[in-house]
Amino acid sequence: MSDPDPWPDYDRELQRIRDRLDLPAPLEAYDGPPEGEDPVQLSVRMSPRLRHDITEVARRRRQSITSFVTEALEDAVRREQDPFAAIAASMTARFRSQLARAVESGAYAEAAAEVDASEGWSESP
Amino acid sequence: MILVDDHLLAVHLGDSRAVAPGSVPLATTCSWWWRLAAALGGDRGGALSRIMDPLEPGTEPTSTLAVERVRDEVTVLDLRDLIPNMARVAARYRLNLLAAEALVAADALGADIVVGQDTPRLREAARVRGITYLVEA
What is the DSSP string of B68-102? Predict the structure, then answer.
């Protein structure tokens, strides 16, 4: 006797999962003029406290307010576009270089295989 | 969207290379996330422990922060939603927990699977289900 067809139930369950998904909206790619065009103006309203703090931080960094705000916004956008940039921003450079070495040397793969063995996840032949 | 394994998560946490061009959203699975957490956090006395700095007293390990931030930046579907279908594909394709979860999660998300470590049975099951499966060198 052949196995019962699992796909109608599978597809029904899949649809149920998709109906419940609440994923962030995808980001549209920029398709305007290339970098180097004349800058445009972006006006935002903010608290006097934030405006004061921006001015003070820019002054301490010896940047113009325009330069500081642009740099901060570029950084925020990059983190949103690249999840790893956001995670990496909270990592120390030392940890990241150690992890890169661990991957390169095979030490990470070895540790992952140890996890597989301890969890009984290795593929049996 | 692309679904990545813990090997790719580790590669990209290490050097922050972009996994995919542009702003393709990332997903992973609970099992791959767990393997990353266990590999980084466990003191197994192996090669990884010799490379990573020992934890200084009173500080939280950076690896813990890395593992936590995955939750904020990477989509992870709830296992409660996936397990019924995982049981179906595990029986059909003889998949282990990791591979079954990856297949069903990719199917539900409409994601491509991109891995650092090839899993032949997952590769074959993905082919049958019409899911793109890539191994990043």
Answer: HHHHHHSEE--HHHHHHHHHHHHHHHT--HHHHHH
CB contact under 8 A, B13 and A87: yes
d(CA A14, CA B85): 8
ipTM of this complex prediction, to 2 decimal places: 0.81
CA distance A76 to chain B (A): 13
Query: Tokens 């061009």 sit at which residue?
Result: B21
Task: Determine the pLDDT at residue B110.
Answer: 94
Interface of A with B in 93-112 (CB under 8 A): 94-103, 105-112
How many whole angstroms separate alpha carbon B46 and alpha carbon B49? Answer: 5
Give dist(CA A79, CA B20) in Å, integer.
Answer: 14
For residue B70, give the nearest of A85, A87, A95 by CB distance: A87
CA angle at residue B8 from A121 to B109, to 5 degrees? Answer: 80
Q: Give the minimum alpha-carbon distance from A30 to chain B in angstroms, rounded to a whole number.
A: 10
Cα of A63 to nearest chain B Cα, Å:
27
pLDDT digits (tens, 9 = 90+) for B98-126: 999 999 999 999 999 999 999 999 999 99
For the record, the structure tokens of A58 come out as 């820019």
